[in-house]
Amino acid sequence: MKKLLLIAVITLPFFLFGQDYNVMSTTDILINTVLESTGNYLEHKNDVDLVENLEIQTKKDSIDWNDTQLIEW
User: Fold this and answer.
1) In the predicted model, is pLDDT for residue 20 greater than 70?
2) Is the pLDDT at 25 greater than 60, yes or no?
3) Mean pLDDT of the region 19-30
4) What is the C-alpha radius of gyration for the chain, rounded to an integer number of angstroms?
C-alpha cells in the first residue's frame, strides 16, 4: 500500500502540471489557420461538382416533321 501511495505521489504532479506548457501565441494560431485552409484548398482544387456544371442544350430539329411532303413519303 505504501508503494502504491508513493507511486501516486511521485507521478501525480507530472500528470497535473506537465500539460500546462502548451501555450500557443497568436502568430502560431494564425499560421496554423492559414496552413489548414491552404491544405484544404490544394486538396480539393480539382474536384468537380457534376450537378452544378451539367448543362443540356437542345437544338432545333433541322427537319420539320409536320411538313406535308414528309407525311406523304
Assistant:
1) no
2) yes
3) 75
4) 36
For residue 53, name the pLDDT band (cuts at 50, 70, 90).
low
**In the block, residue with C-alpha cell 507511486:** 7
CB–CB of 43/37 below 8 Å?
no
User: What pLDDT score does 55 carry?
Assistant: 72
| Residue 63 near residue 70, CB atoms below 8 Å | yes
And the C-alpha cell for 58? 437542345
Q: Mind spelling out the 3-state secondary structure of 18-57?
A: CCCCCCCCHHHHHHHHHHHHHHHHHHHCCCCCHHHHCCCC
Distance in angstroms (rounded) separating the CA atoms of residues 26 and 23: 10
- Grid-cell match 500539460, residue found: 19
Question: 9 with 3: CB under 8 angstroms?
Answer: no
